[in-house]
Amino acid sequence: MKVPRAHVEALPDGSEVKLGVFLSNAKSRRTKLTVDKLAALAGLGLEWAATEGAA
């Protein structure tokens, strides 16, 4: 899954989440993420998280 850095996700309650920024930051800091967090991101379809978690 590829999400542009500028992508903002609108939630049902009307709030917004800067999903693109979150994912970009998570990917650049992936070596500092816990195995559980990497597994959760991999479960959402992020291939880089699955590869990093397997290493």
Keywords:
mainly alpha, elongated, 55 residues
Written account of the structure:
The chain has 55 residues and is mainly α. It has one domain (9-54). 49% of the residues lie in helices and 7% in strands. It has three helices and two strands. It has helices spanning 19-28, 35-43, 47-54, and strands spanning 9-10, 16-17. It has a two-stranded antiparallel ribbon with strand order 1-2. Helix 2 packs antiparallel against helix 3 (47-54). The longest helix has 10 residues, at 19-28. The protein starts with 8 loop residues before the first strand and ends with a helix. The mean pLDDT is 92.
Strand order of the largest sheet: 1-2
Q: Whole-Å distance between the termini?
A: 20 Å
Name the assembly state: single chain
Rg is 12 Å
Please bin the fraction of helical residues.
Answer: 40-55%
Q: Quick one: biggest sheet?
A: 2 strands, antiparallel
Q: Given the C-alpha coordinates, what overall shape results?
A: elongated
How many β strands by DSSP? 2
Q: If helices are DSSP runs of H or I spanning 4 or more residues, what is the number of helices?
A: 3
Number of domains: 1
Q: Provide the residue-averaged pLDDT.
A: 92
Following the backbone from N to C, one meets helices and strands in this order, namely EEHHH
Amount of beta strand = 5-15%
Topology:
Layout: E1 9-10, E2 16-17, H1 19-28, H2 35-43, H3 47-54
Antiparallel strand pairs: 1-2
Task: Please summarize what this structure is.
Helix content is about 50%, strand content about 5%. By secondary structure, it is mainly alpha-helical.
